[in-house]
Amino acid sequence: MAVEFEKLVYLDPQKTGSTFVEEVLIDVLGHEPTLRQRHTPLKERDPHRLHCISVRDPWDQYLSLYRYGADRRGGVYLNLKAAGQASAYRDFGSWLDVVLDPAHAPEVAPNWGSTGIARFVGVQSFRYLRMALPRALERMKAMESVEDVREQHARLKAWDVVLRTETLLDDVVDMLDTHRDRLGITMGRDEIASRAASHAGANASKSKRVEMADEHRARIAEREWLLLEEFGYQA
Q1: Which of 21, 76, 116, 222 is the most buried (most CB within 10 A)?
Q2: Strands, DSSP E only, in 69-166?
Q3: Residue 104 CB coordination number (10 Å)
Q4: Is the pTM of this model over 0.85?
Q5: Under 8 Å between Cβ of 218 and 235
Q6: CA–CA dist 123, 112 (Å, integer)
Q7: Residues contacting residue 233 through CB under 8 Å, at least 6 positions apart
Q8: Are strands 8-11 and 2-4 parallel, antiparallel or unpaired?
Q9: One digit per residue, pLDDT tens: the chain, 235 residues?
Q10: How far apart are CA 177 and CA 6, in angstroms?
């Protein structure tokens, strides 16, 4: 599932630079994916292949998702519109009132609601978990507490390498260079870096602190505790 190559599996949560990553992998590995089912959870982890996942600053994710919906685009916007919640987009705070509330989870993202995990994590952690864990949706339904989420994630996460959207170009190059023998890459680091930089997504690879009201930042941090714990994002 996800985006699979002969020797590598790319786990691609939504809005984490996945188009750029896939383009670079095709260029450097020299072939199209053997299977492309984007944003679709794994069934099982293949121990013979390298697994990577992309992640993003959760505050940046929320702002991006809000702005996308404010332009009347995207699945979350369409879901909220269908549920009569389009007025939430009048401002960022009003929108957060809806998307951070577990009671609205079925309206925001149906699987987030139906699995029951909205009681424990926000929608961005849900999107991450559904790609990080094999048979994720099935496993989520059995999670009964924050500790269940934490324990199962620590024990079952499928990825070997993390690619951060904030440093995406460098992280992709580092992964391909570090694992060149395992992946059958013959080109040197400089050529890997040059090819990666030639793709448009490289221009978005930059680290910055997202400006946001402290109240909104704190509310998001509370719901996205898993991303903060696992990847060191700071409130």
Answers
A1: 21
A2: 161-164
A3: 21
A4: yes
A5: yes
A6: 7
A7: 57, 58, 59, 227
A8: antiparallel
A9: 689 999 999 999 998 999 999 999 999 999 999 999 988 999 999 999 999 999 999 999 999 999 999 999 999 999 999 999 999 999 999 999 999 999 999 999 999 999 999 999 999 999 999 999 999 999 999 999 999 999 999 999 999 999 999 999 999 999 999 999 999 999 999 999 999 999 976 555 444 556 899 999 999 999 999 999 999 998 7
A10: 17
- The rounded distance, in Å, linking the Cα atoms of 166 and 207 is 5
On whether the CB atoms of residues 8 and 26 are closer than 8 A, the answer is: no
DSSP H/E element including 99:
helix 92-99
Q: Residues near 202 by Cβ (< 8 Å), separated by ≥ 6?
A: 20, 168, 169, 196
Cβ–Cβ under 8 Å, residues 210 and 63? yes
Sole residue written with tokens 């999107």? 127
* Coil, helix or strand at residue 42: coil
